[in-house]
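The instructor's notes for this session suggest beginning with a concrete chain rather than abstract definitions. Hand out the sequence below and ask the class to guess, before any prediction is shown, which regions might be ordered.
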Amino acid sequence: LLAELKNAPKPIGENARSLESVIRAAISRRIPEYIFASTGEELIRLNEMGLAKAALGRAIERNPKYGEAYALLGVAQEATGENPEESYRRGVALAPNSAEGHLAIARIQIYCGDAADSIDRIKAYMRIDPLYPALTLYFLAEAHVAHARHRLLQRQRTGPRRRAARKSVIEGKSVDRGG
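After discussion, reveal the predicted structure:
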């Protein structure tokens, strides 16, 4: 792996020492998928997303049930503008106690209009990691605002019909139940 990184198309430069220490520590565990996943995580930290995706892909090849590797792959995909949702979902399905995976899916749910489910997912993240960062509260507030906005729009759409129906009932007229 070190030899592959030395031949990488974009030189890593001064970050090579931190990367090498992560790889050596991972090698000491003697679990190949862990070596690749740890390397991928460090490459994400170093903003080397192409190399990170390659390392994480190797981790997944070695162990297709390694949920954390899928969640990390989602981070790298998101950073490069790819859709990370499938990687995050697979990561959480394989590692249901992955706090970061739950938060990542919740963020996607907020932006895709599924704020109600994102609130539950953020709360699951907070239960898994009780020392969650303050940024989590921002995401939770954002989900509540998005959900409230959705509910308000629903009420605005159905409001006039409800008022017309009530008025018709009061006046003794038949109620139009059409769309």
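Then share the key points. Residues 32 and 79 are 25 Å apart (CA to CA). The chain has nine helices and no strands.
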